[in-house]
Amino acid sequence: MAAPKRGRSGSAQSKPWRPLALILIAIVALTGGMFASGHTTPRLGIDLAGGTSITLRAVAEPGQASAINKTNMNTAVDIMNRRVNGLGVSEAEVQTQGDKNIIVNIPKGTNSKEARQQVGTTAKLYFRPVLATEVSGGAATATPSPSASSSASDKATGKATSSSSATPTASATSQGRPVTDGLKADSTPSASASPKASSSASPSASSSASASTSKLEAQYAALDCTKKSVRATAGKGTKPTDTVVACGQNSQKQWQKYILGPAQVDGTDVKKAQAVFNTQTAAGWTVTMDFTSKGAKKFADVTGKLAQNQSPQNQFAIVLDGDVVSDPYVRQALTGGNAEISGSFNQEEAQSLANMLSYGALPLSFKEDSVTTVTAALGGEQLHAGLIAGAIGLALVIIYLLIFYRGLSVIAIPSLLVSAILTYVIMSLLGPTIGFALNLPAVCGAIVAIGITADSFIVFFERIRDEIREGRSLRPSVERAWPRARRTILVSDFVSFLAAAVLFIVTVGKVQGFAFTLGLTTVLDVVVVFLFTKPLMTLLARRKFFANGHKWSGLDPKALGAKPPLRRTRRPARPAGPVDPKEA
Q: 25, 476, 555, 581: least surrounded by Cβ within 10 Å?
């Protein structure tokens, strides 16, 4: 006679060591990753570890004093917050103070220099045609002949190059051509046009254009990009439609100075930006940009016109807040709707730039008024009190389990320990990966999670006891109780996770830390119950101490009031013979 096939429950019951091995491997891998990363403790928020407080003051552009208003300030706060606190859990705080100031609080452990750059950088991006360029402070070189071109590596990387440059003389000409006569494009404003007036132009207009050109040439000749103070003021106060001077670093880390035509494409035309490691060339980390449909058309038009010019006037400069970060040249119109910025970036610099471009430019310029250090004295006291409260709560839960569930506490307590280890390790890893910072509300969320986890154990244990009260032995009781307990646990945890998700979405600031921690620990509760608590209960149900219902096991049938199973009894047979009328 063939043996009956085992179902899924029978297979899972016979091999509970599999999920136990799986969760053990996960704990070892995560712990190893934590030590390998060097982040063995969770990153603390500003209320627990202190940090840096930055005060930024809004500065109006010339003639735009009305731009400093509530709408633009709120927009700036939103953009800054997304730059430094993209996922809402890094604990950086950005808020307005008065009409012109923004306060940015950055927790200790964050790269404060990078964060200061992100919040203070306006991130106004423009694509401008290069009219002239040379190494600042270097010897002047003539514009190369049409047969000459930039090196292949410069074309691939788009870095600034000093080998193809044009230097204006006192009369602002190079090979008989004015340096501001570089862009032959119909859309180029008159500010960058050649000072050679047409026969129909008035003498006053020609004189004004000549004066403007002379001023620009004087600025370019005096520009020394090796000085930080000069770089900070280069092109300041100009408009996107102006022809400007600017500075940037080339691939040899030399400072290069430029004359740039009016902006042809700006940052609002960028749909998406991301940091990418370029394995095809030696460019390393670059920032790729995808343009909007309107931006792609403008980019294709300007590159098509630039491709007809000689070097360096076939180059366009990618200008971020007045600094040239890249100046690639083009040989044909670029119609793909995307572009790449390269400039010897490391990973952090590329990601920071992509972050700023993705979230957009600030509507205002800001000046850093003060930078102060924030202490964590008050937060440290609150953390100490919170940890004491958590320890008391955990002790009460353990005492409750020992009194009411006795031997079953050897399952509940290790489950709590596994949940605590996973929570700690994951929080430590989330610090360097997504910038998660543990603040006081997050600590409260972790304490609340103790009750959620203990509740799952109690639901499972009570279902097992219900089956024993029906007269069943322990092993069948465990397997029959599990499907009912599993449904209850999943529904309960789903409600908790849904509440945490809604709270995370609709709130800002520290409350998001509470919601994030609550959601994380709720997910871990499901993992621990399925991969640790249930398999461990299955294994212990095979031990005599639990299977025989020892009085200290917490599963004693007598103490639970179990009833013997109901059985049918046979009625005694009647003797043969006549029936007594009295009995009838």
A: 581
User: CB of 287 within 8 A of CB of 274?
Assistant: yes
The model's pTM is: 0.58
How do strand 244-249 and strand 323-326 relate by DSSP bridges?
Answer: parallel
Nearest to 284 by CA among 464, 109, 156: 156
Q: 3-class DSSP state for residue 106? A: strand
Question: Could you tell me what percent of the chain has a pLDDT over 90?
Answer: 19
> Comparing C-alpha atoms, which of 23, 26, 1 is closest to residue 429?
26
- For the chain, the average pLDDT equals 76
Answer for the pair 271, 354: CB distance below 8 angstroms, yes or no: no
Half-sphere exposure of 4 (CA within 13 A, CB side): 5
Contacts of 344 (CB under 8 A, 6+ apart): 159, 249, 251, 253, 284
What is the C-alpha separation between 25 and 19, in angstroms, rounded? 10
Could you write out the DSSP letters of every residue in 382-401?
Answer: HHHHHHHHHHHHHHHHHHHH
Please say whether the beta carbons of 554 and 408 come within 8 A.
Answer: yes
The alpha-helical segments, DSSP class H, found in 121-175 are 152-157
Q: Which two tokens stand for residue 69?
A: 């208003």
Segment 309-321 mean pLDDT = 85
pLDDT at 144: 34
Query: Per mean pLDDT, which of 19-28, 329-338, 386-395 is the most reliable?
Result: 19-28
In this prediction, residue 41 carries a pLDDT of 86
Rg (Cα) of the chain, in Å, rounded? 36
